[in-house]
Specification:
It is a single chain. This protein is mostly helical. It folds into 2 domains: 97 residues, Muramoyl-pentapeptide Carboxypeptidase, domain 1, CATH 1.10.101.10; 188 residues, Collagenase (Catalytic Domain) (3-Layer(aba) Sandwich). It contains 13 helices and 7 strands. The protein has a 3-stranded mixed β-sheet with strand order 3-5-4. A two-stranded parallel sheet has the order 1-2. A hairpin with a 5-residue loop joins strand 6 and strand 7. Helix 2 packs across helix 5 and helix 7 runs antiparallel to helix 9. 40% of the residues are buried.
Amino acid sequence: MGLQSSLFRGDPTLEACAVSDPAHIMLGAVGDHVSKIQTALIRLDSATIDPGELAAKRYGPSTAAAVLAYKKNPRRNIINRSYQTQADNIVGRMTIAALDRELVGNQSRPLAKDLAVLDKPLTEGLIRNALKALNDIEKDIRILESGASLSLGTPRWDALQKHFHLQFQISSSLGRALTKDDLTFIKRNYQEAANVLNNSAFSFDNGPPVKPGSAASGSFDQKKIFFSPLYKDFDTPDGKQIGPNSRAAIVIHESIHLVDNLSGDDTKTHISEFDPRYETMSADNARHNPSSYATFAWHVTRGHDQSRFGLGPARGM
């Protein structure tokens, strides 16, 4: 019986690897069969593989390291004891069979672009909640400007300060005074992010991550979000988790990359909510920060900021 998984089945190089020792796959190999092995390692083991190797479909050092880590996992411990005492970084008959078997067990579960489409309702709800909060902030301002009193100790104002560093009529170490242009700009970005979701048939695609370990990457130039095999339900040994709440935050984050050409500057505007710089970045930069949009939406939805949702340690159930 040949390989059974939809990813491997029918590939002549992989089928040969499954039955012939001389056909094993190792460092230096290049081709579609290598790309399929890389995809399997990412999908099954959350492997980190160099983007250059992924793009070239090359069995390079990081792919070899991922194969070795896969084989050394205690629940697999793939060693041909007829001639080995420890695992190697080669894909032979035992390894391809193990990968294929695990893929069969996982292939019925949606991942990458297909899972992102299923996550759309939750993501769209978060964006609606964010827009409602911003509209309510505009109403609050009109009430205050009329001379009436109003408490600003509400989740929406707390979220505006925490994530966009904007406050009503004052500037301080926590942020600067909110302007009408700020609200217009932030609302427009959310509305355009909603349009990205509305056009998901075009804007969602499968593709390798721009950075190793990324679940998704938004491209302003291509107007697409590329979802990698890491966009799935998983827990990793270092505590990173991607559950539905995290995935919704990721989709908002990546959607902002498609609509804001200043959102990708890693030194100024592209700052993770788990980075200490998130708390101190300027309001002008926060307006372009994709993480600000994701965390603001979750803050106003939940009513508080305890345990933000994103791809970070011990987050994202």
